[in-house]
Design brief:
By secondary structure, this protein is an alpha/beta fold. The chain is built from eight helices and ten strands. It is globular and about 45 Å long. It comes from Halobacillus aidingensis.
Amino acid sequence: MKEPIVKLCGNRSLSDVAKTSSSQASHLGFVFVRRTKRYVRPEYVGRWVKKIRPRQKIVGVFIEPTIEEIEEILHFVPLDVIQLHGNETVSQLLRIKEAFGLPVWKVVHHQSDGIKQMEVFRGVADGYIVDSKVDGVSGGTGVRFDWESVPTYQKESFDQGVPCLIAGGIKPENVTKLLHYRPDGIDLSSGIEIEDGKDIGKIQAIMKEVEQNVASIS
């Protein structure tokens, strides 16, 4: 079994980046959505990344951004992946991909038509994040959905030939249960925090569970 994608998202400080980048995670996420509590200014992120030089890929999280907004972020931050967390359309994804030539991951909220949402973006999205649906909140809620549905999402993403990450309420105490379903990846934010900052102990505990799960299947 190949190593799953592990994205540590919602980094808000140099200290956060120092902790998350010291792990074996594959991706670090930064939220560029102004009305959210994990919003970070791109010029700060640029400084942190330049100082620490993480080996992980950098993911920028947006909600229905304009081309100009993404351009501004890219002026400061060397993004590897653009993650869209809103009600973006297929044409918006295509415009963003054409403008920047970067992979675009689309967030799908777990609900009755979750698979239909993925089908809409077939051949356009370069990956998916399935997250819990909480009214009035875009993400980072710490709320998990019914993980028995994970194989259904995995099958659709496999058919499309792109990865599917699972988000929402993942923490050291329950990650083993999620890994049982063998997702392509996991996306964590609140589950690796204490008092609004990333916690090295929780990060290490998550990564240990991931490594042990891979070893047990290999």
